[in-house]
Amino acid sequence: MFPMRRLDIYLNDHFAGATFGMELSRRAATENRGTELGDFLHNLHEEIVEDRQTLRDVMNALGIDASPVKPAGAWLLEKAGRLKLNGQLRGHSPLSPLVELEGLEAGVSGKRSLWQVLRRAFPADARLAQFHFDALVTRAEEQLQGLEEHRLLLVPDALHEERRSPQTEGFGLNPSDPGRAGSDRTPDRR
User: Fold this and answer.
1) Which residue from 97, 111, 110, 92 is spatially nearest to 24, judged by alpha carbons?
2) Residues contacting 113, CB < 8 A, separation 6+
3) Cα-trace Rg, the chain
4) pTM for the model
5) Which residues contact 33 (CB under 8 A, 6 or more apart)?
6) pLDDT tens digits, 129-162
7) Where are the alpha helices (DSSP H) in the chain?
8) CA neighbor of 117 nearest in space, from 20, 2, 6
9) For residue 35, what are the contacts with CB-CB under 8 A and spacing of at least 6?
10) CA dist 40 to 36, 135, 149, 175, Å?
């Protein structure tokens, strides 16, 4: 086993979080493939993978062993998160992308904090001279901006459920669908 100094714990916790973010972004990108959101998530996933590798390189430069347990736990946690109820028995709920983007926002915010902390904690450490923490902070801020923009676009579909009036209940009609033929008629109740 390896010694668990405070820096070891801190970086291994962030590495586990990066593993969770990598898995969540992969799943979200796959489930939204072929859409503008899917394209954004695909690019975000690639950047998260790169940032996770950068963190691994930082750990190596500082002589910190990666815990095999924490990333495995994060991987399992992401898989277990798929089991949560999303308002539908099967399939991808409109609520799912909103919750996924909120989770990714939390992770990217933590990653931005990590880069800021490392920049502050090791300003002149030759072992970390190859890492450009200012650029990593900027990239995390850009990721946060993109996540926020896409998350807010999801709100109407995610939270507003289709409402049925008493006149259409049981008839399979949706009065709010402007493209439905006869949407201005009330069902005949003979």
Assistant:
1) 97
2) none
3) 22
4) 0.74
5) 42
6) 999 999 999 999 999 999 999 999 999 888 887 6
7) 6-31, 36-61, 69-81, 95-121, 133-159
8) 6
9) none
10) 6, 20, 11, 34
75 contacts: CB under 8 Å, gap ≥ 6: 19, 20, 23
- Non-local (6+) Cβ contacts of 76 within 8 A are none
User: 24 near 78, Cβ under 8 Å?
Assistant: yes
Higher pLDDT, 69 or 134: 134
Where are the strands (E) in the chain, listed by range? none
Q: Say whether domain 6-159 belongs to CATH 2.102.10.10.
A: no
Who's near 183: CB < 8 A, 6+ residues apart?
A: 173, 175, 177
Q: Is the dihedral of CA 102, 108, 110, 113 positive or negative?
A: negative
Boundaries of every domain in the chain: 6-159, 165-190
